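Forum: Protein Structure Q&A
Topic: Joint prediction for protein chains with partners

I've read a bunch of threads here and the consensus seems to be that you should model interacting components together rather than docking separate models afterwards. I'd like to see that in practice. Below is the full input, 476 residues plus whatever partners are listed. Could one of the regulars post the assembled result?
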Amino acid sequence: MSAVDKAFHGLRHMIATGRLGPGERIPPEAELGEELGVSRGPLREAVRMLAALGVVEPRHGSGTYVSQLRPEDVIGSLSLTLELLPLSGLLEVYEIRRVLEAHVASKAAARRTPETVKTLFSLIDAMEATEDPTEASELDHRFHAEIARAAENPTLATLLAVFRARSRKYQVFTLPEGPEMRRKSDADHRVMATAIADRDPGAAAGAAEAHVAQTERWLRAFMPPVEEDEDTSGDTAG
Amino acid sequence: MSAVDKAFHGLRHMIATGRLGPGERIPPEAELGEELGVSRGPLREAVRMLAALGVVEPRHGSGTYVSQLRPEDVIGSLSLTLELLPLSGLLEVYEIRRVLEAHVASKAAARRTPETVKTLFSLIDAMEATEDPTEASELDHRFHAEIARAAENPTLATLLAVFRARSRKYQVFTLPEGPEMRRKSDADHRVMATAIADRDPGAAAGAAEAHVAQTERWLRAFMPPVEEDEDTSGDTAG
DNA sequence: GCAGGGAAAGTCATCAGATGACTTCCGGGC
DNA sequence: GCCCGGAAGTCATCTGATGACTTTCCCTGC
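Posted by a regular:
Agreed with the consensus. Here's the joint model:
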């Protein structure tokens, strides 16, 4: 086993067994390296691996801390890599998204509060009012995020947010057919929001699934990946 | 921006823009470090991060290669960290699993081949025959993996395999109540397999969801995490 | 006694050089 | 034609030193 593996598994084991708990600071590099029997180089590489996976977080000058280890912490790590997938593989992701969006819509319909309904419709109004495709995309994201939030499963909400972020790289609304697509999309949103407002889980699930399927169809038809030099990772969704 | 970030994003950008394609070897450390303007230390840390995320794979003595970038490549990275989650967060994962297992069961029922059915029942027979809880757990995994495979979405199959692996750390069958649980579990499996054999998607989905829900209930009741020093990562599922 | 400033310690970040380990390839020997 | 050995290329690791940032604490001034 290589030194990096030794450090990686050793550190992971310390966390798995509870010797290092969520939020806790891990020992300094020199000390930990000696304990694990590796020098600082490989140890740092192992720490970076765990950081990329959302398990620890190094803070310059302060120390390295174990994350809170919530499901969304580790699932969020996918957002850095999912957008590297070729479009072909993305279609498989879409099938998953279809199923899960339908589920959260259904659950949101069952558990909705008046505030949720109000938020959803105000987001729809804003979407229909704006001309800026980027803003529309942002509002669309917040609309779906709000539904996922209402379903009361943060893990699932994070997973769907990751999947959606990948799709947003393709800004279909900027195409010539964009305006027509947006009208259709807006109509879908109204159907979904209405079903949720009516506490009708079946209708909400159906509308959500149809909406995702429609988006998938558009993406399949045109696929101009947008060149980007992020970070535009402003997660302004409430 | 730190040197590690510069190297990480630089490398990721090279892959995102297609300058480095799947399976391709990236430039040697010295060369790449010079191009990105960082020394070998931080560059290696950035490479390790991408390796942890399933994007690249360093091979000692040969070079570092971009992965095939299939969805399962990057999703598989979750398996290293999902088992670090506390049980409380795991319940949210179970809800997702319930929905997705139901979906794959339904799809498997629609697309099943005679070979699939044969495999499923032979796995059930083997499960009922064995006394070894570890072997039973392994067969259980293969049973569910076979159903996911039949649904023809490798990404989804990988995602479910990751979720299941987390649950298997809790070997509920070794409890005093184990034998009774296993009888119930075996019965569930027969219902699922029969629904799939009958090409009845609705019944298959219902049976799968009920089965996962049952497992979840057991886990919620007893939760003795099994200490382990893997790797037992033998993915023997066909 | 208290608030502010600044020094000092602790820790991660980075660079540089050297050496070892492993893979790959090629040519020589049989 | 096959096998073996060596050379080159590349990643893996160690060591030492320096810089950057954060945190703590003491000292100063009021």
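The first strand of chain B starts at residue 56 and ends at 59.
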